[in-house]
């Protein structure tokens, strides 16, 4: 079961301030600033306002909305109450963000009833405890449960039984699948793939050729409703990596460098979220003709910092014989884990370490609120010449 609170921040504000109920509410930056929308009520969404929209555009669309700064401590307190309600349904709950969680409901039919009854009880318990609505999706694995919770928002309940998975997925836009970003959608559009049913008609090798090995396998499996059903503790991952496949082969070093920096940021953020630091950076390159290479560098200290991961990867590229050759795919990864609380490097200024931690904590918080790419670390003049 996947449980997703409806317009969480805005709903908390409407709950706490009755005068906001029924009105468009926008939580995020205030008009006149340069920030963006964190979330908004469903009344605001009728004006086309959505998360990550510049606040100036939101104000242009609906100047009469209620604009509020986030009250994160309040939202965190309500989130803990929601998780307590979920723990009253099942002993296995996996929070994945402040307003959503996966719940293992296998075996609860004898205690509670059918999947529909479990879903209704969950929604009733949450509403009774915090006075808010949640959308619930139930399916045979994480992918289907997540898509099901999105299916009838707000205040929805959708159950997809195993024999209904193909029919549920088939009409969906490919963009609904996990990990399908602008680049993947662009390739899919070029191939004429609009719906999951069309994607399902492509053989695995052809998907790998167009989207890359990892993304191709992921799309192939998702189109068939294949995904993990594990909730709670996960097996330790061996590495964290991100890659992208270009529409056309790329020789421009500036584009390659920018792409690698973005991928390194995604790798670093994932490592920090999972409390991992690594010392082995891997660069993956696929050249024209699907000639694939990897290069590795072991760092002197463990890290999960975007800049250090990027610099190691870019140095690997610059010191290789790939420079100037057309690149079809580029990727970067980190492995060689050590516990997050491992002893700090004695030769690094502790004040500098604290400043860097605060910087990355802020970066990750903003990304959690507003999405990837809304805030990134600047490139210093010295680094930009390398």
Write the layout of secondary structure elements.
Layout: E1 2-5, H1 8-16, E2 25-28, E3 37-40, H2 42-45, H3 55-61, E4 66-68, H4 72-87, E5 93-97, E6 100-103, H5 115-130, E7 134-138, H6 142-151, E8 157-159, H7 165-169, H8 182-190, H9 196-200, H10 204-211, H11 213-223, E9 239-250, H12 253-273, E10 276-287, E11 291-303, H13 306-318, E12 327-339, H14 350-370, H15 381-384
Parallel strand pairs: 2-4, 7-8
Antiparallel strand pairs: 1-6, 1-7, 2-3, 5-6, 9-12, 10-11, 10-12
Helix pairs in contact: 4-5, 10-11, 12-13
Instruction: Indicate the CATH architecture of the largest domain.
Output: 2-Layer Sandwich
The ordered string of helix (H) and strand (E) elements is: EHEEHHEHEEHEHEHHHHHEHEEHEHH
Quick one: CATH superfamily of the largest domain? DNA polymerase, Y-family, little finger domain
Unreliable segments of 5+ consecutive residues: 339-350, 379-386
Name of the top-level CATH class of the largest domain: Alpha Beta
Radius of gyration: 23 Å
Described by the principal axes of the CA atoms, the overall outline is: globular
Number of helices: 15
């Amino acid at each position: 079961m996947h449980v997703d609170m409806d317009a969480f921040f805005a709903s908390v504000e409407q709950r706490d301030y009755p005068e906001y109920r029924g009105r468009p509410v926008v939580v995020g930056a205030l008009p006149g600033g340069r920030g963006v929308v964190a979330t908004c009520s469903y009344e605001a969404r009728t004006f086309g306002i959505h998360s990550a929209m510049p606040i100036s555009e939101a104000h242009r669309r609906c100047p009469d909305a209620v604009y509020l700064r986030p009250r994160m401590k309040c939202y965190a307190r309500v989130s803990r109450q929601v998780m307590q309600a979920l723990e009253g349904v099942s002993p296995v709950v996996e929070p994945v963000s402040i307003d959503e969680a996966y719940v293992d409901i296998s075996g609860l039919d004898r205690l509670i009833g059918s999947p529909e009854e479990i879903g209704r009880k969950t929604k009733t318990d949450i509403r009774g405890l915090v006075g808010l609505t949640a959308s619930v999706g139930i399916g045979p694995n994480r992918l289907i449960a997540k898509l099901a919770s999105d299916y009838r928002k707000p205040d929805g309940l959708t159950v997809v039984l195993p024999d209904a998975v193909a029919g549920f997925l088939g009409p969906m836009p490919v963009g609904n699948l996990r990990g399908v970003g602008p680049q993947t959608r662009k390739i899919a559009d070029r191939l004429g793939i609009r719906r999951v049913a069309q994607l399902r008609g492509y053989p695995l090798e052809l998907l790998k050729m167009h989207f890359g090995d990892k993304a191709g396998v992921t799309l192939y499996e998702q189109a068939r409703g294949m995904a993990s059903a594990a909730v709670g503790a996960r097996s330790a991952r061996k590495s964290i990596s991100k890659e992208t496949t270009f529409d056309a082969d790329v020789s421009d070093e500036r584009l390659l460098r920018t792409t690698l920096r973005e991928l390194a940021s995604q790798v670093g953020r994932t490592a920090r979220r999972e409390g991992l630091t690594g010392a082995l950076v891997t660069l993956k390159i696929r050249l024209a003709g699907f000639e694939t290479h990897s290069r590795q560098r072991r760092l002197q200290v463990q890290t999960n910092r975007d800049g250090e991961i990027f610099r190691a990867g870019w140095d690997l590229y610059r010191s290789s014989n790939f420079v100037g050759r057309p690149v079809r795919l580029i990727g970067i990864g980190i492995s060689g884990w050590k516990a997050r609380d491992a002893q700090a490097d004695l030769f690094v200024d502790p004040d500098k370490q604290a400043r860097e931690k605060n910087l990355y904590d802020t970066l990750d918080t903003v990304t959690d609120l507003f999405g990837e790419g809304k805030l990134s670390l600047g490139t210093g003049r010295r680094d930009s010449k390398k």
